Amino acid sequence: LAVLELRISLETEAAGLAALRRSEANLAALRKALDAVIAAVDAGQDSVAADFQFHLEIARATQNSHFADLMATLGAQIIPRSRLEPAADMNGERLAYMRRVNTEHENILDAIANQDAESARAAMRTHLSNSRERRRRAQAGVG
After folding, report:
1. What is the per-residue burial (b if ≥16 Cβ within 10 Å, else e) of 87-105?
2. pTM
């Protein structure tokens, strides 16, 4: 939960800056990372590495190397489900959860692509706040 609090502040601003500063190459890298997340989910495979790559690409799109350096230092363990059950345990409920996460990712990417900094910030804040709530429920043992 503490890491998600950090991520909310860091990545919300990163998404806004990415929307303002992203290049076409950044957009292509974001799309590739998100497509890898979607493919892994659809195949019932682990999507943590691809999910982290998506968030790292947002940091890179800020054109401020400090964002990317900090994300790289934090590593893939910042993805909350990296500490939950393995992807092999993918059931209908978890698949629905992952599809909701991917919809949140698409909203972030759309705002960055449209160079809408406020919408990018809002989409990232929503995504990470939802992740924080999902993590709280998981820790409390509530589905």
Report:
1. beebeeebeebbeebbebb
2. 0.89
